[in-house]
Write a structure and sequence with these properties.
By secondary structure, the chain is α/β, with parallel strands linked by helices. It has helices spanning 11-20, 27-36, 55-64, 77-86, 113-125, 138-146, 157-164, 168-187, 203-207, 219-228, 230-245; strands spanning 5-9, 41-45, 69-73, 90-93, 129-134, 151-155, 191-195, 212-217. It binds pyridoxine-5'-phosphate.
Length: 246
């Protein structure tokens, strides 16, 4: 089976920092600690309103990381300029609304195919691996493939919500959709990632999908780090991922 990578999203270290302003906790320090704890990559989302990660954080991550940076961004001209300046290993294109608390759904690729195809072309030419964050929806996956994305990241939020809200029928339906669409995407030649809302309790079934090669996990790990420390929190996630994979 393909190796399963863990990308640690450090956005919410910056959320805590920004709650007070000032310099701590430092997301860069968290990223280096995550690296040391076995993260295969670091993910950071520079939002239009800069509510957590800042431009200076991205500068620091680009300079200091030895593992790849997965730069999450909305499909705007400003973000494209920033990505082209830094040329991170990967960019993940996400939908973004100012009023949302977190990335609520997948990107609407099918309706915006033309614009997105033009949007990602220079990013690909600059050498970034382009990933599209989408729902487990056949139409969106086909569109992501047509616009030239190399990677899709499946949104696991609906599955995780159903799990934690004790809605077993919804949970099973969402999980089945993720499983089927991971296989469908791989058949099209896309690399398959997954993420959003994953916790120790929900990670196993997603990690077990053989087509999924990367999970991006943030909020739960940063919260868990309060109780057991970041390195330990990450190590436990890694252990659960490996156990599910075997
Ligand atoms: N993947 C993508 C594309 C995301 O936008 C996010 C949230 O920023 C995550 C993964 C991580 O989600 P969470 O913080 O809920 O683990």
């Amino acid at each position: 089976m393909k190796k399963l990578r863990l990308g640690v999203n450090i956005d919410h270290v910056a959320t805590v920092r920004n709650a007070r302003g000032g310099a701590f906790p430092d997301p860069l320090r968290a990223a280096k600690l995550a690296e040391a704890a076995g993260a295969d990559g670091i993910t950071a989302h520079l939002r239009e309103d800069r509510r957590h990660i800042s431009d200076i954080d991205i500068d620091g991550l680009m300079q200091a990381l030895t593992v790849p940076l997965n730069f999450e961004m909305a499909a705007t001209e400003e973000m494209q300029r920033i990505a082209l300046r830094h040329k991170p290993h990967a960019v993940c294109i996400v939908p973004e609304k100012r009023e949302e608390r977190t990335t609520e759904g997948g990107l609407e690729v099918a309706r915006e195919e033309n614009r997105l195809a033009h949007f990602i072309a220079p990013l690909r030419e600059a050498g970034c691996r382009v990933s599209i964050f989408i729902a487990a929806d056949r139409r969106q996956i086909e569109a992501a493939h047509r616009i030239g994305a190399e990677v899709i990241e499946l949104h696991t939020g609906a599955y995780c919500d159903a799990f934690h809200e004790d809605r077993p029928e919804d949970r099973d339906r969402e999980l089945a959709a993720l499983r089927d669409m991971a296989a469908f995407a791989e058949d099209l030649g896309l690399e398959v990632h997954a993420g959003h809302g994953l916790s120790y309790e929900t990670v196993g079934p997603v990690a077990a999908f053989p087509q999924v090669v990367e999970l991006n996990i943030g909020h739960f790990l940063i919260g868990e780090a309060i109780f057991r420390g970041l390195e330990d929190a990450i190590a436990e996630m890694r252990r659960l991922m490996d156990a599910a994979r075997s």
